[in-house]
Specification:
The structure is a homodimer. By secondary structure, chain A is of the alpha+beta class. Chain A is built from five helices and six strands. In chain A, the strands form two sheets. In chain A, strands 1-3-2 form a three-stranded antiparallel sheet. In chain A, strands 5-4-6 form a three-stranded mixed sheet. At the A-B interface, strand 5, strand 6 and helix 5 of A face strand 5, strand 6 and helix 5 of B. Chain A binds a DNA duplex (30 and 30 nucleotides) through helix 2 and helix 4.
Chain lengths: ~140, ~140
DNA sequence: TGTCAGTTTGCAACCGGGTTGCATGATGGG
DNA sequence: CCCATCATGCAACCCGGTTGCAAACTGACA
């Protein structure tokens, strides 16, 4: 993807660029790890929770960002770094949730394996999250 | 697995069989689809929410049942039908969540694809849930 | 069989993520 | 410049999940 401003990214996805949307997308593009709504709330103190909520939904609907559940109890959001405006599910990477330190990792190198479903199912998105111990915590904990 | 009573199943997993635990496991073994805590609550009217909650956790800890997040917002539970008392992740089937009718389907025939993670990660469990439209709803909705 | 410690359960209250209604504020087209 | 429309903040709410505590139960031992 060519270098472009946040505003251009929004417009490319057909989203009317407002201050809130620029700020949220900006923040998401800065962060190197997926964040929850609550984390965004603390990052963007000036912005109301409901605004963040609605902004994230707009970004999601227009496929400017992804969301997924990692089992931490709160949905995580991350910017979509696809070339095109539509991001195919097989291009998305998997995530790892550490049950010890409760951090969520992007495993950029590993893409979501796509299975074949029985006739009739229409796939919209796939959630592939591995849970366990991250390398750091794994070292500290003995093998059972 | 040989035919055995719910009580025996509990004991096989090292769980002290109490009335509540038998009822919950009983109910889970009857149901053919994964259920949320709330659904269990309505199924088992006599039992308190907190009891169900704690019971599910006991069953989970002892690997008598599985849980997973389907993106509906509430965790789903289903009985573990593995031969052995430990259920390997590659034997588990995937789930499909219909965004239209909000039902969760077991796709028994399709097992969770297991990926290789970078050095250091210790895998405990994998959540693989496909979201989209189920065959029924797919028929009713035009292709975009 | 009675007693006691440890376990299980129900009740009530709580927490926090997510969601909504409503009123105000910004925006862009005519 | 004005109005319709969209975006935002505020406050309240909903609901799944969680916890503290006291009462009920259970099982081991005397």
């Amino acid at each position: 993807m060519a270098v472009e401003t946040i505003e251009q990214q929004l417009q490319a996805h057909g989203i009317h660029p407002t201050a809130a949307r620029i700020l949220v997308l900006q923040k998401l593009s800065e962060l190197t790890h997926p964040v929850s709504m609550t984390e965004l709330e603390t990052e963007l103190e000036t912005m109301d929770k409901s605004t963040i909520f609605r902004t994230l939904n707009v970004l999601l609907e227009h496929h400017a960002i992804h969301s997924f559940e990692d089992g931490s109890g709160s949905t995580k959001y991350e910017i979509c770094r696809c070339e095109s405006t539509v991001c195919r599910v097989e291009n998305r990477h998997i995530h790892f949730y550490c049950e010890e330190c409760r951090r969520t990792f992007c495993i950029e190198d590993v893409k979501i394996p796509v299975v074949a479903l029985p006739e009739g199912y229409r796939i919209e998105t796939i959630n592939y999250t591995v849970k366990g111990l991250c390398p750091e915590c794994s070292k500290r904990k003995p093998i059972v």
